[in-house]
Amino acid sequence: MSRHAGVAVLALALCLAPGCGRSKHARVTGFAPPPLPAGFVEQSMAGWRIAVPSTWKLAPPRPPSLWVVSDPQAVDDYHANANVVTEPFVGDSYDFAQANAAGLKEQKQASVESARDDVVDGDPTLLIESRWSAPSPSAPSYRTLQAALASRGTGYVVTCAVSTNAFERYRSTCESILRSFAVER
């Protein structure tokens, strides 16, 4: 069983306790999605949608639980990219984000630099910024900005990854990508 599946089982068990019918982290009423930044296009998949720079290219077909686009121009031999990973999760977006932040802290190559409260698609969640060491001496190090949402028994982790040296230049692009993410309710 994966770590996140174990977290999902724990969340389900806790949800069977009295008073679980209400989320501690209710959706923000009156949430209005941000306008698409200039040069962004919306991509829709089954159950969710996201906006990315129009110049970024869709990666070759992957398993249904993974969607990836990348910038065709590399910086430090690394192509900035955005991806969406799905997995089963019973619980709210904030709980899913906390589980993902905890999982990142256990990764040897990752160093979580910040996990700040935010709202994506009307759901309270965390924006998690991490620094990743190079997986090999010839590979570049990179940084990620992530958000996690949960809806209808599915957890969604949205990641924007950029070479460490170019991250600040891409920060607003990454934030726009994450903030554009929306799931079916």
Task: Describe the structure in brief.
By secondary structure, the protein is α+β, with helices and mostly antiparallel strands. The chain has three helices and ten strands; from the N terminus they run αβββββαββββαβ.
Report on this structure.
It is a single chain. By secondary structure, the chain is α+β, with helices and mostly antiparallel strands. It has one domain: Mog1/PsbP, alpha/beta/alpha sandwich (Protein Transport Mog1p, Chain A, 3-Layer(aba) Sandwich). 22% of the residues lie in helices and 42% in strands. The protein has a seven-stranded antiparallel β-sheet with strand order 3-4-5-9-8-7-6, sandwiched between helices. A three-stranded antiparallel β-sheet has the order 1-2-10. A hairpin with a 2-residue loop joins strand 6 and strand 7. The relative contact order is 0.20.
Distance between the termini: 27 Å
Q: Predict the CATH topology.
A: Protein Transport Mog1p, Chain A
Assess the beta-strand content as a share of residues. Answer: 35-45%
The order of strands across the largest sheet is 3-4-5-9-8-7-6
Q: Topology as H/E string?
A: HEEEEEHEEEEHE
Helix proportion range: 10-25%
The description of the largest β-sheet is: 7 strands, antiparallel
CATH architecture: 3-Layer(aba) Sandwich
Record field, number of beta strands: 10
Number of domains: 1
Q: Class, according to the CATH hierarchy? A: Alpha Beta
**Total DSSP helices:** 3
Q: Unreliable stretches, pLDDT < 50, 5 or more residues? A: 1-22
Rounded mean pLDDT score: 88
